[in-house]
Amino acid sequence: MPEHFVFHYQQALQLESGEQLPGFQLAYTTYGTPNQDNSNVIWVCHALTGSSDFTEWWGGLFGEGKLFDPENWFIVCANTLGGCYGSTGPLSINPNTLKPYFHTFPQLTNRDVVAAFDLLRVHLGIGQIHTLIGGSLGGQQALEWAIYRPEVMQRLVHVASNARHSAWGIAFNETQRMAIRQDPSWELPTADAGMQGLKTARAIAMLSYRHYKSYDATQQEPGCDKTDNYNASSYQVYQGEKLSGRFNAYTYWLLSKAMDSHHIGRGRGSVAIALQKLKARTLFVGVDTDLLFPVQEQRALHEQVSGSAFSLLHSDYGHDGFLVEEAQLAAAIQKFYEQELKPAFTYERQV
Predict the structure, then answer these.
(1) What are the structural domain ranges in the chain?
(2) For this structure, is 130 an active site residue?
(3) Ramachandran angles phi, psi of 229, nearest 5°
(4) Same fold, 3-165+265-341 and 170-258
(5) H/E element, 174
(6) Which residues are annotated as a binding site for substrate?
(7) Which residue is catalytic, options 46, 211, 263, 319?
(8) Most buried by CB count within 10 Å: which residue of 45, 47, 213, 229?
(9) Which fold has domain 170-258?
(10) Is 136 one of the catalytic residues?
(11) Who's near 280: CB < 8 A, 6+ residues apart?
(12) Where are the catalytic residues (predicted)?
């Protein structure tokens, strides 16, 4: 079974903003056992509202008899810095004030998150990662990490994500934060500040995570008599209520801002120059109905990274297809691995 741990870092972490975090902790999950030379490590980066327990949201990939069987692999996933599943975040106690951070928690970027992940990696004695995999926000972090530590990452599986966040994606996130700001409780220094706004934010987000086809298939009314109380309406309310039971508005705000700031070219000249630092053999994966991270973003990355592979998942579930279409994703990764075993094609001139 997966095991759960907490990594404590006692020194200050310098952030990209210029601020410092006075120490932090990362909750992380492991599954399986590292082999003698640590060559069987799979590291997973989760999406915006995910946790370190990857078996809960990518169970089709990890487990006995699955693509990543713990009998063969040592799998690690850490709850992101700023998260609310055991890692240091806005509800944590600030050691300098002995009070919860709340609104005073410093803004994070994916580079800050990756720096914390890398400290955990060193703590675990992992010198090489066989495969680094992440989707959505986790895909952004995985790409950033593979550029930050190119000598560590042997393979990268980058799923439904991008090299820089788009104006379209930033607009979606800002609209969600507008909903949180409209909640009068958001200004209060309490653990449940902004929770009503968070419910609306999540409902807005669902429109970017899903697709017309999935709503039509699952929420369309079967008859023609209704004039109110539609399935689609109650579904939106349900999604907001569901998230509010396991998340907080501070972390949602913080991580959506981290997503917005994602740009691997920042401080490196350009996206193209940054991608030249990649040493990992890379698979870029897109979802054909993804509205939030459209396929052209993954195709553009594939075109710029020499020797990379590309796979397209077919789904009616939009961006969430990267979580739903686990069988397709597992098959794509398996094919990616198998391509390494194929001998290079050579042409012999016939005489």
Answers:
(1) 3-165+265-341, 170-258
(2) no
(3) 55, 55
(4) no
(5) helix 167-181
(6) 202, 320
(7) 319
(8) 45
(9) Rna Polymerase Sigma Factor; Chain: A (1.10.1740)
(10) yes
(11) 132, 146, 150, 153, 154, 155, 156
(12) 136 (nucleophile), 290, 319
